[in-house]
Amino acid sequence: MELLRIFRPVHWVKNIFVFAALVFSRQLAGPIEEALGAVGRTIGAFFCFCLASSAVYIINDIMDRKTDSIHPERRSRPIASGRVAVRTAGVVAVACVVPALAGSFLLAPRLAAVILVYVVLMVFYSLGLKHVMILDCALIAVGFCLRAVGGAVVIGVFISPWLVVCTFALTLFLAFSKRRGEIAQLQANSEAFRKTLGEYTPELLAHMLDVSSVLAVVCFLMYAMDSGTIERFGTNRLVYTSPVVLYCIFRFSALTQKGLYSDPVKLILQDRPFQVGLLAWVLLCIGIIYMD
Predict the structure, then answer these.
(1) What is the pLDDT of residue 256?
(2) Would you say 215 and 170 are in contact if contact means Cβ atoms under 8 Å apart?
(3) Rounded CA gap, 163 and 145, in Å?
(4) Closest Cα partner for 176 from 156, 192, 199?
(5) Residue predicted with more confidence, 31 or 54
(6) How far apart are CA 263 and CA 242, in angstroms?
(7) What rounded mean pLDDT belongs to the chain?
(8) Tens digit of pLDDT for each residue in 122-176?
């Protein structure tokens, strides 16, 4: 059970970004054999990213085991609490990376390259880049963009630059939200837990949340109104889903800044109104994209 916990399976929900290219490329509207093949390859890419991300989480927990011991929630993690030895955790991390790279290479060599870049980038993040203000959140956002790119690469489709930039802005917003939640939860102990939290302030993070959320919405609107998008879908109706997008972002920001959630994953998995809004947006997008 303790070994399973270091995989952080709850956080595998982050790898859902792999499916973005499958939906927005209209692959599901093709011949049944091609559609099923694309679905199968995307699911394979999803599990490869799950293994790769778990390896990264384990490495990060090894590096943070001392600071995690002062966190009210993270102190109970298997590595921070000493219930899983560092050496054992290291072996498990390697055991995750190898099949992730091998499996992704069998699916598509370019996917293996994307996952390798993701792992290397996140290892450097764990080793020290997470202590650099702003860059720490930017690297997290790049990791999500690599997930979206990996989803496109595995099925061999073009991914709109607007969609990539939108993913970056949205996940940058999520990263800043996490920092805001950590400050609200830890308060005076925040700098002892994470060095960069001493450089961020609630006011600065509120400004960054505003900028990144606006950028995400604008990029989504630009994607929806892009000539290539309209030509691919035969409509510009995606733009009409923007009120739902705004609702989800505003609710996420409000709950985070109130300090009700220190982890975006918990908010996504626990807040019912947000879940309803997110599900409504997904269903609207699928309906618009595949309405023909």
Answers:
(1) 80
(2) no
(3) 9
(4) 199
(5) 54
(6) 25
(7) 87
(8) 999 988 888 888 898 999 999 999 999 999 999 998 888 888 999 999 999 988 8
pLDDT single digits (tens) 223-245: 989 888 888 888 889 999 999 99
Find the DSSP H helices in the chain.
2-5, 20-24, 32-63, 65-68, 78-81, 86-107, 109-127, 135-155, 161-186, 190-193, 202-225, 227-233, 242-257, 264-270, 272-289
**CB contact at 8 A, 118 and 143:** yes
Q: How confident is the model at residue 186 (pLDDT cuts 50, 70, 90)?
A: low
Residue 195 has pLDDT above 80, yes or no: no
253: CB partners within 8 A, 6+ apart: 173, 177, 209, 213
Is the confidence at residue 292, as pLDDT, over 70? Answer: no
Q: Give the phi and the psi of residue 24 in degrees, each rounded to 5.
A: -80, -10
End-to-end CA distance of the chain: 47
For 152, residues 6+ apart whose C-beta sits below 8 A from its C-beta are 21, 25, 158, 159
Q: How far apart are CA 77 and CA 206, in angstroms?
A: 29
Q: What are phi and psi of 25, to 5 degrees?
A: -90, 0
Give the integer Cα–Cα distance in Å for 23 and 290.
9
The whole-model pTM stands at 0.89
**Spatial distance between the Cα atoms of 100 and 112, rounded to a whole number of angstroms:** 8
Tokens 């860059």 correspond to 135
Cβ neighbours for 286, distance < 8 A, ≥ 6 positions apart = 23
CA distances in angstroms from 28 to 14, 19, 108, 122, 286, listed in the order given: 22, 11, 19, 32, 10
Q: Is the pLDDT of residue 278 over 80?
A: yes
Classify domain 1-156 by CATH number: 1.10.357.140
Q: What is the dihedral of CA 39, 43, 44, 45, to 10 degrees?
A: 100
